[in-house]
């Protein structure tokens, strides 16, 4: 791309800044107890302000509220996302990037700010614009541009509830010859690598050292898994960890037959293991046939090398 071509391309993309992606759109369903209950169960948030009407009646608010982080949940489009939806400014921008070779996409961060609470019966209205597009950057993934959408949420009275900024990198994917060559050198494909971030990297590093750790709140001693920054019981951010003995029991299981998962010599048995310490862990059951597994089966875990690149806890029947 010549300097002139790049200038012309940038003129086109920067023209998207400020454009509306979504006009003010009321959520199809009002804020409601059923969705709050399901969401808090999945997240493991037991704050009574969200789900305990009797408790909330005696609180300063006098009623339950929705978790602020659900702000973006209320306006979700559902299955329309997978079956096609009308083009909008964001889709047009993405297509423009794709046309010029910036086909890679990576969501890089989400930042929410909260200004006002909503309760069951309120309606959340979302508006979204393309807020900014960076200059061309050189990144580890390849050259690209960051663009950020800004979603603004109001209630049915037009009062601002909060905002969400979502940043995406559109980049020209780079050939990675070194990696490609080493992949070819492996006779057997390896399993998909764990994604290690700020909040869970320590857990995987311990697995590499042969240990399964369970995060423990330093204030109330509650154990939690998977790793996360805050205690769901007392909201403390202080934590340490204990090592699991890997004595467990199968709480639920399935066999993944299709599509084939790379790195497994045969269809893997995936189970939710209830550990003796009280937390649950998703892992493979090995050393037996699928037909031998049952709910309640006692198992013992071992942290083992499962292929050239991967160490994982696996569970064996007792
Ligand atoms: Zn705690």
Description:
The protein has 318 residues and is of the alpha+beta class. The chain has 2 domains: 135 residues, Hotdog Thioesterase (Thiol Ester Dehydrase, Chain A, Roll); 132 residues, no CATH class. The protein has 8 helices and 14 strands. Strands 1, 2, 3, 4, 5 and 6 form a 6-stranded antiparallel beta sheet that branches. The chain has a 5-stranded mixed beta barrel with strand order 10-11-12-14-13. The protein starts with a helix and ends with a strand. The model has no long low-confidence stretch (mean pLDDT 92). It binds zinc ion. The site of zinc ion has 8 residues, from loops.
Summed up, what is this model?
The protein has eight helices and 14 strands. The longest helix is centred in the N-terminal third of the chain and has 12 residues, at 3-14. It has 318 residues and is of the alpha+beta class.
What is the topology?
Elements: H1 3-14, E1 20-26, H2 33-43, H3 48-51, H4 53-57, H5 80-83, H6 89-99, E2 104-114, E3 125-133, E4 137-139, E5 142-154, E6 160-171, H7 177-185, H8 201-208, E7 213-217, E8 223-224, E9 239-243, E10 247-255, E11 269-275, E12 280-285, E13 298-305, E14 311-317
The site of zinc ion has 8 residues, from loops.
> In CATH's first tier, which class of the largest domain applies?
Alpha Beta
Show unreliable segments.
Answer: none
Count of strand segments = 14
Q: What's the N-to-C terminus distance?
A: 63 Å
* Share of helix, binned: 10-25%
Write the H/E string, N to C.
HEHHHHHEEEEEHHEEEEEEEE
- Per CATH, the superfamily of the largest domain is Hotdog Thioesterase
Structural classification: alpha+beta
The total tally of domains equals 2
Write the CATH architecture name of the largest domain.
Answer: Roll
Bound ligand species: zinc ion
């Amino acid at each position: 791309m010549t300097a002139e071509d790049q200038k012309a391309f940038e003129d086109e993309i920067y023209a998207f800044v400020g454009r509306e992606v979504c006009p003010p759109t009321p959520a199809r369903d009002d804020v409601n107890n059923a969705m709050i209950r399901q969401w808090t169960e999945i997240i493991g948030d037991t704050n009574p302000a969200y789900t305990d009407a009797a408790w909330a009646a005696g609180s300063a608010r006098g009623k339950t509220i929705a978790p602020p982080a659900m702000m973006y949940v209320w306006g979700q489009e559902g299955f329309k996302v997978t079956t096609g939806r009308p083009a909008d400014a964001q889709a047009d921008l993405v297509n423009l990037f794709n046309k010029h070779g910036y086909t890679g996409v990576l969501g890089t961060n989400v930042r929410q700010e909260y200004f006002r609470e909503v309760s069951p019966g309120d309606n959340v209205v979302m508006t979204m614009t393309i807020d900014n597009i960076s200059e061309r950057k050189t990144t580890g993934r390849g050259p690209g541009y960051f663009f950020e959408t800004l979603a603004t949420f109001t209630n049915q009275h037009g009062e601002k509830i909060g905002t969400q900024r979502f940043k995406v990198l559109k980049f020209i994917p780079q050939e990675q010859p070194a990696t490609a060559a080493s992949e070819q050198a492996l006779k057997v494909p390896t399993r998909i690598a764990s994604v290690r971030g700020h909040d869970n990297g320590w857990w995987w590093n311990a697995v590499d050292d042969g240990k399964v750790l369970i995060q423990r709140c330093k204030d109330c001693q509650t154990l939690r898994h998977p790793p996360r920054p805050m205690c769901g019981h007392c909201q403390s951010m202080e934590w340490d960890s204990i090592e699991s003995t890997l004595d467990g029991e199968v709480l639920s299981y399935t066999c993944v037959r299709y599509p084939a998962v790379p790195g497994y010599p045969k269809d893997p048995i995936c189970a939710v293991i209830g550990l003796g310490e009280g937390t649950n862990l998703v892992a493979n059951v090995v050393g037996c046939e699928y037909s031998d597994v049952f709910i309640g089966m006692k198992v013992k875990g071992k942290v083992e090398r499962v292929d050239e690149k991967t160490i994982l806890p696996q569970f064996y029947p007792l």
